[in-house]
Amino acid sequence: MNGLRVSIVMPVWNAGRFLARTLDSVLAQTCGDFELICTDDGSTDNSLEVLHDYALRDRRIRVIAAEHAGACVTLNRCLDEAHGEYVAFLDNDDWLHPEALQTAVSAISSANSDLLLFDWCPVPDDGSIRVPEFPALPKRLAPQPICDPIGWSLKDRRGFVTHVLLGARLHRRSAIGGIRFDPEYTFGDVLFYWKLMSKQGLRAAYLPVPLYFYAERTGSIIHSPLTEKKARDRACAIRKIDDILLRENPGERQRVMREMYPGIAWTAFKDAHRDGAHLKLVCRCIEEDLLSGRLRWRDFGLRGINKAMRIRRALASIRSQEEART
After folding, report:
1. What are the beta bridge partners of residue 64?
2. Geometric angle at alpha carbon 54, from 51 and 58, rounded to 5°
3. Whole-model pTM?
């Protein structure tokens, strides 16, 4: 494995229906200097058989069979097995552009970066096993340096749930180091992102071309119904990210508190309010953040005053109900 360029890590769970098209997109790469580490997370369908079949065809594919432990544990197992200079992540039902690895490796090398972020395209799941049409890439591609990773992450709340996809990045393995996914947290990719972006001295760049294609399926974590754990984890994102900043980059904490924490609180509140069943739980988490000083009403600003008022009214209503019962 000496001199290996890229380790692609892919956790697999009950994806037998989609695996062939995903694996084919890897084997079609114009850059062949890679290993694909596939850890099967105790699938109950034919996923493991499909993986073994492809591994017999191509020695670059490594298959690990494991008991079901969840996506974060499986991702960590893959990372522990990675040997490449760079690490890329791939979901078991997504695709890579045929030139994705070649383009990303060239860009991260020319920019001398630890992390390269690039664009991705959603592909609605219409029930068919189809492969998207891959656009032709420009002949000249120049990665844009990200001089302020924290500021870049705060723009449009890129670093929380939807804007930065785990697969739409190429990481220098030495920059990841001992960073791993939190198996107890629903949005493990969010915390992984902040652990990385909060590192002082991180060299990052952005390439504005779509190299990753994401299958939008109703069963994904983002599109699945709100559960008690999901509601709690989303509301707890403030303290999780705050702990990372206090440990890795305390000088940036005030900026993130001001520009992102109110948005996280509002998103958690809005989803719970729509759901109804978990509103009290989320409000309690928000109240704890307010009491600790991590969340401040003044950070909602004039543009967020209506959101702040709705949260305050909900907190007051819950307190009144509890006082009435006692």
Report:
1. 39
2. 130
3. 0.92
Burial class (CB in 10 A: 0-12, 13-18, 19+), 52: middle
What amino acid is encoded at 152 in this protein?
W
Sketch out the chain's domains with CATH numbers: 6-216 (3.90.550.10), 228-325 (no CATH)
Sequential pLDDT tens for the chain (326 residues): 457 999 999 999 999 999 999 999 999 999 999 999 999 999 999 999 999 999 999 999 999 999 999 999 999 999 999 999 999 999 999 999 999 999 999 999 999 999 999 999 998 876 666 677 888 998 888 999 999 999 999 986 666 655 678 999 999 999 999 999 999 999 999 999 999 999 999 999 999 999 999 998 655 555 567 899 999 999 999 999 999 999 999 999 999 999 999 999 999 999 999 988 999 999 999 999 999 999 999 999 999 999 999 999 999 999 998 888 87
